């Protein structure tokens, strides 16, 4: 598997998104563990999660605990796997998503994630979503403190505008904003400006829902003809073409396709080795 970097840490060019294994439609634990182990077998060394990836009230950290169990039960060496979690988003249990970006809440959430992941320091912690009631500086300031205390080793932000990226760069200090995680897919391209901004500053950019999201990813080829046609020419899936197209956008891009089945992540991981021509990339950009 080709690699990329998040701050000083080397990770696989394709990560695994953990959300489908813990929210609506989630599989049983046995299938989830097989999916995570298949990702590791395929060379994936980045797993994205969040405390809010759960379904019912009272099971915050469901996905973090699942990943911790999968890493502990992996028969191979999982010591180089970077788990990227997040705080600042909540699920009350009625299907909705709410936010809390107050520094006190983020500190408590990070402490809970430490326990859920079973680690002394969180490898990679991301502020999940801006809270309109809390100045962005204050939310990111909580991450700066957690970094300084050694409770988290890398800090990132998610669902951020260019202005918020620059605030985070300033608050965390130059070089300390490791990543930006925004929605980006063939159907949703409005984060291309943030992708370019991250690339200019050497900040990793993690496209979320890169295949269009849970329940829509399977129809990607039917919705985007050029992706289907390029896939046909290479004898691969349109999902693989999508991920390879993103990787070609900039060396900082690290897509995190979700999966709840081993087959999905095995196929997605192969995108790291798929080379597309300049002509194909231009066609996909225009589709
Ligand atoms: N920061 C944020 O606010 C935010 C928001 C949403 C998501 N995320 C993160 O981003 C990750 C990815 O987003 P997502 O899971 O919402 O959507 P996604 O990656 O666009 O799509 C996930 C779905 O794609 C299917 N899939 C994966 N690889 C495939 C392949 N090669 N061929 C066919 N189908 C394939 C999977 O199906 P199966 O389930 O059948 O395996 C899965 O359900 C999440 O898991 C989460 O970690 C972050």
Give a quick precis of the structure.
The protein is α/β, with parallel strands linked by helices. 40% of the residues lie in helices and 15% in strands. The protein is built from 11 helices and 11 strands.
For this entry, give a set of tags.
binds NADP nicotinamide-adenine-dinucleotide phosphate; two-stranded antiparallel ribbon; 11 helices; single chain; globular; 287 residues; 7-stranded parallel sheet; alpha/beta
What is the count of helical runs? 11
Overall mean pLDDT: 98
Q: Numbering strands along the chain, what is their spatial order in the largest sheet?
A: 3-4-5-8-9-10-11
| Poorly predicted spans | none
User: In angstroms, what separates the terminal alpha carbons?
Assistant: 28 Å
Total number of strands: 11
Instruction: Give the % helix.
Output: 25-40%
Name the beta content range: 5-15%
Bound molecules: NADP nicotinamide-adenine-dinucleotide phosphate
Oligomer: single chain
Sheet bearing the most strands, described?
7 strands, parallel
Shape: globular
Structural class: alpha/beta
Rounded to an integer in angstroms, the radius of gyration calculated over CA atoms is 18 Å
Q: What sequence of helices (H) and strands (E) makes up the elements?
A: EEEHEHEEEHEHEHEHEHHHHH
């Amino acid at each position: 598997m080709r690699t990329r970097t998040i701050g000083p840490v080397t990770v696989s060019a394709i990560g695994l998104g953990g959300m489908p294994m813990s929210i609506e439609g989630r599989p049983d634990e046995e299938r989830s563990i097989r999916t995570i182990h298949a990702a590791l077998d395929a060379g994936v060394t980045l797993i994205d999660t969040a405390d809010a990836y759960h379904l019912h009230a009272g099971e915050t950290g469901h996905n973090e605990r699942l990943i911790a169990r999968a890493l502990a039960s992996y028969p191979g060496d999982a010591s180089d796997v970077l788990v990227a979690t997040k705080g600042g988003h909540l699920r009350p249990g009625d299907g909705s998503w709410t936010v809390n970006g107050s520094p006190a809440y983020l500190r408590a959430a990070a402490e809970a994630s430490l326990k859920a992941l079973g680690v002394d320091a969180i490898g990679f912690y991301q502020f999940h979503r801006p809270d309109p009631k809390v100045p962005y500086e204050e939310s990111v300031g909580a991450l700066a403190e957690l970094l300084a205390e050694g409770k988290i080793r890398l800090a990132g932000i998610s669902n951020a505008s260019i202005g918020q990226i620059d605030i985070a760069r300033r608050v965390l200090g130059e070089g300390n904003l490791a990543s930006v995680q925004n929605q980006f897919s063939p159907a949703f391209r409005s984060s291309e400006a943030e992708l370019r901004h991250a690339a200019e500053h050497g900040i990793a950019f993690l496209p979320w829902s890169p295949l269009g999201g849970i329940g829509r990813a399977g129809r990607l080829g039917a919705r985007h003809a050029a992706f289907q046609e390029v896939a046909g020419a290479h004898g691969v899936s349109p999902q693989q073409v999508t991920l390879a197209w993103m990787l070609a956008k900039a060396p900082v891009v690290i897509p995190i396709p979700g999966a709840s089945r081993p087959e999905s992540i095995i196929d997605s991981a192969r995108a790291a080795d798929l080379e597309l021509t300049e002509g194909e990339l231009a066609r996909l950009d225009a589709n």
